[in-house]
Amino acid sequence: MTRLIAVDFPASDRLRAEVEVAWESGHAVLPLDQRMNPAIRRKLAVSLGANELVSEHGTEILESPDVELVALRDGDALVIATSGSTGAPKGVVHTHDGIAAHARMVTERLALSAADHWWLCLPTAHIGGFGVLSRAIRLGSRISFANHVDDATLTEALARGASHTSVVPTLLARHSFADWKLVLVGAARSEVLPSNAISTYGLTETCGGVVYNGTALRDVDIRLTNGRVYLRTPSMARTYRHAAMPLVDGWLDTGDVGTLNGDQRNGTLDSGILRIEGRSDDLIITGGNKVWPHIVEQRLREHPLVAEVVVRGVPDPEWGTVVCAWIVPTTKDRPPTLDALRSHVKETLAAYSAPRRISLVESIPRSALGKPLMSELIR
Prior knowledge:
Elements: E1 4-7, H1 13-24, E2 28-31, H2 38-47, E3 52-55, E4 58-61, E5 76-83, E6 89-95, H3 96-110, E7 117-120, H4 127-139, E8 142-145, H5 151-159, E9 164-167, H6 169-174, E10 182-186, E11 197-203, E12 208-212, E13 215-216, E14 221-225, E15 228-232, E16 239-240, E17 252-260, E18 264-265, E19 268-269, E20 274-279, E21 284-286, E22 289-291, H7 293-301, E23 306-316, E24 320-329, H8 338-346, E25 357-360, H9 374-377
Parallel strand pairs: 1-2, 1-3, 7-8, 7-9, 9-10, 10-11, 24-25
Antiparallel strand pairs: 3-4, 5-6, 6-16, 11-12, 12-13, 14-15, 14-19, 15-17, 17-20, 18-19, 21-22, 23-24
Helix pairs in contact: 3-4
């Protein structure tokens, strides 16, 4: 019988060893987010049906949750906690076969080998970080760990021989990765990346990135229906812990909107470049005009007085929704004005794309994967 083992360790050799022991014993693992306090981590483990929790304090047998769960079965390898639109945690269940398929596709595309030295700086409680760990386990690659990223840890990693890493766009913007052989960047646009970096697109449900620099990995299918992106991949999760996966003939509705420059046959992309415009619910419709936040963000970042920016739509009685920008100024004593930023945006974009409101903030709160935490900005 497959048991679920919650592994409560920071990214480390100990975590790698615990995952390997669990897998060799035929069990699945649930990596816990070390940014949560211990009580919340334990509560999450119980809610996702972990049978036991392994930490530096030993092994604890956990009580059964008070909700019905989809049963684990032979071949299940991983449960990753992720949040849906309601913010409630759900567990995405991946099999050994699916994880192996993802490792095979990535290894083939990137020509990876056991000689590579990966530097893991993303949380292993998210699929991007765990994917680095699982590929290293399957390939027998060397892996070193960092629970904090700054110029000193980057220099130390390179000095120890690290050559490959996976980061979020904010890290790439804050630090130089010019000396690395390969840098995978989740959710970034390939046209703004250095030559040694690759933009990856995927979801927790797809076991991480399955589209690299806009092109699908081998055996991955992309379909656009009314602009919405659907994916089909041998690395697809088997189920959610609390409900079945909403798949139709193996296709998953990603909730993202995109475009492609290749031809489709029977609705499926055979070749071409996929460009993600954004989440369907991020699209701003202001006065009947459509505005994609990332396009406005890119333009605002070009202003010399803007260090960081996030753009979203906020309700407005006249326009329905207006473009609002949260700005981190480059210098506190000289913040940009609304008029200056509107003029800057209107130099290259339609006037309706220019923000009608701005909010000056000291920082943009972000998740471990670099996504802005809008609930903390919109209060």
